[in-house]
Design goal:
The protein is mostly helical. Helices cover 59% and strands 8% of the residues. It is globular and about 70 Å long. It starts with a strand and ends in a 13-residue tail after the last helix. It contains nine helices and three strands, in the order βαβααβαααααα.
Length: 263
C-alpha cells in the first residue's frame, strides 16, 4: 500500500450553520456515505485497485511514492486526481481504504461556494483525464464505466427534469401554453407516453428513499426535511459534469484557488 484514502465524514453542526449550510452538508453527507459504502470497498479491493481519487484532505502517501510522482503539474486546477492517476500510471502500489481511518471536512455554506467547489473538482477530473490519456489497464476499464455512468446519468437526469417541466407547464399556466399549436401537439404526444405523476414517482421516490436510509443510519431526522430539495443539487452536479467536459481540454490553471468561507 502506497497511499491510504481516509473515510470522509462531514461536520454536522446545525446550531452553527445556516439553513443553506445545513442543506449542503446533509446532501454531501448522503453522497459521501453512499459512495464510500457502495463503491469504495470494491475500488480498493486488493484484486482490483481501481480507486480514481485519494481525496487531498484525507490522504496519506508513502514518501517513496511521493518522490516518484508529479504532485502538482502546471495547468491543472486540482492535484488529488492527478496524484491518484500517477500511482496507477506508474504502477507504484495499492491504495488502501478503511472506515476506521476518518477525516472530517467542512462543506460550503453558500450555494455560490458550492457551485465553485463542484466545478473545480469536476474540471480537475477532466483535466487529469486529458493529461494522462488512456493506457491498457484494469484501472482504465473501470474508469471508462465510471465516465459512461456519469455522462449517461447526467444527460438522462437533466432530460427527465426538462420533460417534467414541459409536462407541468399547462397546469401552471392555466393551459395558456396549449394555445401554441406546436407545444400542444408535442405535449399530447408525450403525455400519452408518460404522465407527470409517473415521472415524479420514478425520479423523486428512489432519491428520497436513499435520503431516508441515510437519515435513519445517522439518526438525523432533519435530513428528511432537507432531503426534499436534494434533486436540485443533483441537477446542479449533473449540469456541471457535462459543462466541464469540453473545458477540461481548453482550460488551463495555475492551481491557485480561493477557499470558500468556513465556520
Amino acid at each position: 500500500i502506497v497511499a491510504v484514502a481516509g473515510y470522509a465524514e462531514t461536520q454536522w453542526r446545525p446550531r452553527e450553520q445556516s439553513l443553506t449550510g445545513q442543506f449542503i452538508t446533509a446532501y454531501r453527507d448522503r453522497l459521501y456515505l453512499l459512495l464510500q459504502v457502495l463503491s469504495r470497498f470494491g475500488q480498493t479491493w486488493r484484486h482490483t485497485n481501481v480507486a480514481y481519487i485519494v481525496p487531498g484532505f484525507a490522504s496519506v502517501y508513502r514518501s517513496t511514492a511521493l518522490r516518484q510522482i508529479d504532485v502538482n503539474p502546471h495547468g491543472l486546477v486540482i492535484e488529488d486526481f492527478n496524484m491518484t492517476f500517477e500511482l496507477h500510471r506508474k504502477r507504484l502500489g495499492r491504495i488502501g481504504f478503511k472506515p476506521g481511518v476518518k477525516a472530517y471536512c467542512q462543506e460550503p455554506h453558500t450555494l455560490g461556494d458550492y457551485y465553485r467547489q463542484v466545478r473545480r473538482w469536476t474540471l480537475g477530473f477532466w483535466q487529469t483525464v486529458r493529461r494522462h490519456g488512456v493506457w491498457p489497464s484494469l484501472f482504465w476499464a473501470a474508469l471508462i464505466l465510471l465516465i459512461l455512468e456519469v455522462v449517461v446519468t447526467s444527460i438522462g437526469f437533466l432530460a427527465a427534469i426538462g420533460l417534467a417541466v414541459f409536462l407541468a407547464l399547462p397546469p401552471l399556466t392555466g393551459d395558456a401554453v396549449l394555445g401554441w399549436d406546436l407545444y400542444a401537439e408535442n405535449h399530447a404526444a408525450l403525455s400519452g407516453l408518460i404522465t407527470l405523476p409517473a415521472l415524479a414517482f420514478g425520479i423523486f421516490v428512489p432519491d428520497y428513499f436513499m435520503t431516508c436510509m441515510v437519515a435513519a443510519y445517522r439518526r438525523r431526522p432533519k435530513y428528511l426535511l432537507l432531503g426534499m430539495g436534494f434533486l436540485a443539487l443533483r441537477a446542479v452536479d449533473a449540469a456541471i459534469s457535462l459543462r466541464t467536459i469540453p473545458q477540461g481540454w481548453t482550460t488551463r490553471s495555475t492551481g491557485v484557488w480561493r477557499s470558500p468561507s468556513r465556520r
